[in-house]
Each structure stands twice: as structure tokens, then as C-alpha cells.
Amino acid sequence: MLRLILTAILITLLSACQAVGLGPGVALVEQAIAMQVSQTQQQLVRQLGLSQPPELEIIRIGVKKREPLMIEDLQGFRLRGNYDLKIKLPAKENFQRNKPFDVYLQRQQQAQTWRLAIPAGNENEQKWTTYLIEPVGYQ
User: Fold this and answer.
1) DSSP string, the chain
2) What is the pTM of this model?
3) How many C-beta neighbours within 10 Å does residue 84 have?
4) What is the pLDDT of residue 122?
């Protein structure tokens, strides 16, 4: 009887994983956060008239919430949590701890690549702008 219950639980868990699929790993989440930070950094560099942007390094990522969702008819995830950021300036280094993040990731149709998805539009008609997250070694 116990074996039957354990088998039923295992089948349920496996089918739930198959429906949602494997989610994004920490390295992918780090790349997505880095892309978002880089976009913000580029805007600041232009506004401040800096000749060279500071070097940024994401130190630690803690995913607190992972929600599966559909983004333009493709499987996606909304991930929220915190990360630590090291900012390297010419004269010093600065650490920012527990910075919140909220990223949307969209799995591509062949499930080989992911895209960073940024909500656009209004609540009535959800639209997305997406950016390819290049896999490591991608040429």
C-alpha cells in the first residue's frame, strides 16, 4: 500500500515537472539580471556624460519566488529575489547588498535558448519586448 502511494506521488510530481518543464538555472538568471542592470547603466552613463561605465559584478543571487506563466504563447517564468552587486570604479569598489530583482524569462520554442522578457503596454493588452540571452559559447 505504501509503495502504491509513493508511486502515485512520484508520477504526480513527474507529470507536474513535465507540464512546467525545467526552469531557468541560476547562471541564466544571473545573465538576465546583468542584462537589466546593463540597460539601466547605459542610460545613466549617457545622462551623466561619463566616458566609461563602471564594471559591475553580480556576486550572489537568491531566488525567492518562481512563477510559471505564458509569454506570447511560449512558456516563461517570473522570478523574484535578491542579489548582491559589486561596482568597480577607477578609485574604489562599492558593494550593494540585497538588491531586489524581478525578471521574466521566456523559453524559446526549441527549448534551447531563453529570452529576457520585459513587459510593455498596459494591463488590458499585455505586450512584451524580448532580448536573446546568449548561451555560453554562443557565436
Assistant:
1) -HHHHHHHHHHHHHHHHHHH-----HHHHHHHHHHHHHHHHHHHHHHHT-SSPPEEEEEEEEEEEEEEEEETTEEEEEEEEEEEEEEE-SS-EEEEEEEEEEEEEEE-TTSS-EEEEEEEE-SSSEEEEEEEEPPTT--
2) 0.75
3) 15
4) 75
